[in-house]
Sequence to fold (620 residues):
Amino acid sequence: MSPATEGAPPLLQVRDLEVAFRVRGGEVLASRGVSLEVRAGETLGLVGESGSGKSVLCRAVLRLLPQPAAQVRVGQVLFDGADLLALPERRMRQVRGTDIAMVFQNPMTSLSPVWPIGDQLTEGLRVHRGLSRAAAREQGIALMRATGIPEPERRYDDHPWQWSGGMLQRAVIAMAMACKPRLLLADEPTTALDVTIQEQILALLADLQEASGMAMVLVSHDIGVVAETCDRIAVMYAGTVVETGPAAAVLGNPRHPYTLGLLRSSPGVDRAGRRLDPIPGQPPDLADPAPGCPFAERCALASAQCRENPVRLEDRAPGHASACLFPERMS
Amino acid sequence: MSVAAHAGHAPGGVQAELLRWSPSLRIGMALLALIVAAGVFAPWLTPYDPLRQDYGAALLPPGAAHWFGTDSLGRDIFTRALFAIRTDLVIGFWTTYLPMLVGVLLGAWAGLKRGLFDAVLMRVIDTALAFPFLVLIIVILAILGPGTQNIYIAVFLVGWTMYARLARAEMLVEAGKDYVLAARTLGYPAWRILLRHALPNIVNSSIVFSMSDFVLNILLVSGLSFLGLGVPPPVPEWGAMVAEGKDFMQQAWWISTLPGFMIVLTGVALALVGDGLTHRLGDRHVTGH
Fold:
């Protein structure tokens, strides 16, 4: 685990989280001892391929893993010092929405098709803050304005099918922001949107964060998205964090071969004309994990030791850690 | 009915809603409305009393004075068939929609919460469904005794299980959708997620099923009355009327046949509405897939 570089204790601290899914004929470790932290007001980018455990981590933090299939084995999720995993369900329900909120990948399905958007957007205010319908409407219109939805008074009573995806994602973000959470988990918030809209939504999230001072976890499989907006980055692979550190350090001087692979396989404007360099192979079978480094099979720099010895996150520079036996081979 | 509730959400109001109705829904609704109106206005539609006996006019064939003829006690069958609408539709309604209300809520809750409640509920339902429906009803009625009130109890005890199963299955699908997950991440209470978010999206299949259930329940009540386990004698009821005529089939076919025709007509109306609703409610899943 990386030591806190700033003085304040982290807002969210996940320690050695292990989540297992029961499946036919065994179980899958979707999260294998994940540790990370998010400090108040910062943006942590969570990157990794599909199935690397990003969404499982978010849902574990909110204790909304699919039941009864998923089970948290060991670990702690400390929010503001309190272990969320030990909270009674009633307290946890207040944490959701008021302290921690979440935005999903597909805005088209994140709202119920039968109710007006405005009503759904302000439901948290009525549930958690006890606001009347009229008072909630007033705040809802302000929220819609703050998230860049034009003509909020007129559009408050629209239904989800009347809106475009980008506009709906603004509404979903407004819904998550309604009770002023201190931490926003954004799970691939731009993946389902057009590229031009993606930029707008990322800018919106950054603006809202600056205005409210909340912390944010931006989950993405697109390292480019994360590079633009995040203070710090955690790279996940096969249910573990393989590298974490300040965004500039991780992107500029990656200390894990997987991070390097992600960077080389991602198209970027500044890299125009260069060939992409995909990572060969497939992620490992999480139902049957090997003893050594999970990336060893696909790593060009791996040697026999990598396949046998377990790896741990270790500091390479202040605040910059990676789980690699031979980070010096990277240079 | 739910159609009215949905009409409120649809753009364009009542007229546009009517335009979306398929022919079968329109015909079924019109027929059903006609039957309901005939039941409501029965006293004004006929000069006769459904209970008054007139031995001088017994066993008269259908004609100008008695459209459906008269029965062995000289009662006007058309009058009794009209008044029976009240008996049969009311019993049919409550034996369908009380179990539906309870069944859908229990099933949806089980599908949302899973765990012990779900497991226990499903075993109870499996046990109930292991017996043939009619046998179970007759056993319950044999214990409780015949009568309208006991029909309600007996059908309720068995009827909710189908709705619970249906609603649970729909809820399992719906609970995995993003909007339910979003509502949970925002910390809304489970009952609120159930009633406000999930229920409007899972209740359609139960509504469609309820239409055929309605028909079957009317047939069930008629059948029980035919067997003497249902509505007690002087009260006009289609099944009981069919039973009363069975001894006179040779000389007075109209006593059994015309009330039977009313059962068929009501059944057709409800089936058409059910079929129409399948399509009308089906196309509401525009978003979400």
User: Anything to note?
Assistant: Chain B has one domain: 22-282. Chain B touches chain A through 26 residues (CB under 8 Å).
